[in-house]
């Protein structure tokens, strides 16, 4: 019995997507070709690996056994690549990251600069994507690493903590709420808001918080990007909520002031997501994941 590594890679893709079509797109192979590979694999093992359902493939017990061994083999191969690379030349490759423009500008420049110093042979492709789209790009195999924020979840993907940021109330100079040293979200809700796009993780978080209070956010202006939010707040178009680290990095908005937000969800968590176990990622992606999760 001979099972090649590429067939195992395709099998893992089918297991993770539960779809020949999605697995084929992720692995850049024709659906007919991956279907034949799976049929040949079943014949070689003399085991049915998938039950065909109307909308998905249902893995059999034999498929789960094979997946366990396939992941072990892939981890061993990955470790071999790492050790051989350490003994020979520098790591080379390209890693695709999908993240919001706020993350791209706030956190990644310094982190990628230090990573490039350690691994000059690895290039990085950045795609500006809001959290839901970043998760989808990774799930579809169009990005290697996604960065997303609460309250979204990357179901079906592996995740690791990336960063935390404190959210604060953003108010125009002279606003009546500035008389208070800190604010609850309920105290902000009677006023009109400047909001980011509704599909952003921050807007989703704020609208969910309002719903828990059985209230609604009065949205006066919707914009794309933190800088636009500050411009609108500065002009008195409403109030808002933004990450404190971003505001500290952009102190040029003299017409806005901030106040701490007394809410448990105001300490927002950012996460990394990727397909499969991190130990089975290709070497450049594995190195970048480890670098990002350790970065301050």
Automatic annotation (TrEMBL):
Residues 3-60 form the HTH lysR-type domain. The keyword Transcription regulation applies. Keywords: DNA-binding, Transcription, Transcription regulation. The keyword Transcription regulation applies. It holds the Pfam family HTH_1. Belongs to the LysR transcriptional regulatory family. PANTHER family: HTH-TYPE TRANSCRIPTIONAL REGULATOR YBHD (PTHR30419), LYSR FAMILY TRANSCRIPTIONAL REGULATOR (PTHR30419:SF2). This is LysR family transcriptional regulator. It comes from Paraburkholderia dipogonis. The lineage of its organism: Bacteria, Pseudomonadati, Pseudomonadota, Betaproteobacteria, Burkholderiales.
